[in-house]
Amino acid sequence: MEYKILVITPVKHINGLQGILESAGSVTYLDDPSMEEVISIVDDYDAIFTNPNKSNVFIGKDLLDAAKRLKVICTASTGTNHIDMSYAKKLCLPIISLTEERDVINRISSTAELAFSLTLASLRHVVRSYKAVQRGEWDYEKFIGRQMNYLTVGTIGYGRLGAMYSNYCKAFDSRVLVYDPYKKVDDQGIEQVSSLECLLKESDVVAIHVHVTEETKDMINKSSFDMMKPSVVIVNTARGDIVNELDLINFLKANPDARMATDVLANEVTNKKNNPLLKYSLKSDQIIITPHIGGMCIEAQEIAYGHAASLLDKFIKNIDEKNNP
Question: What is the reported pTM?
């Protein structure tokens, strides 16, 4: 039996990926489909290959109920908040992701590098000053920045990306604090703090590197912002749902020297056009927003997408072996 695979994320630019996918089955490529487009054809497919970046498709009840013959979902990502995991579990539908593929994802530094880039861009007012030059201005006074070797950087979450980011900041001679109640930090030159409150009060830069869970949704909210310095730079390359965006906007309005640099938005897959932070950024120069480009490097995509496709190929071949011993 030839399995039919529906790919709902751009992949044709990734070297070697189509070959892996097409060795697994018959593939249909939809680079940027709407939810309606996917729902209208999904009942004809055995597998979905996806990624949350540049996606308008939430794989939830409506889509899954229409996918009568679906046997597996494969996402080339560590995060799975673009999939209704509880409903998929109820349907006994396997999910292939990179969440636990440690040997593979440890080779991918792109998101940590972006977080560090956003940190420097915010501290040095790169975007604001560039826009001023485009307007014909040439005046440094409005764009006087900060040196990292005089700053305290607070990293929330010390997993793979949090550890990488912390070490980048340490290399620039920042004082680095880490809050992670589930990890022991054993890295000379990086201080582990016992409370989030301590980190928020002392940090000039707060960088978020945690997965989105019921525990971490809205983890950064009004009470968090009340503890932060009025000139804090907040960097989020994790997931938008970790930050309460309405509370963030109120904080930015009250603290004109504060900055937010984010690669992610709340409800990014289902309703990004109406996102309040995106709307506020149109009239505020306190915010840098990038379109979820953290993992979007040539090397990162080849590693992540290639491995996810190989896992899908292996899954399908295992099913064939069981059905045709």
Answer: 0.89
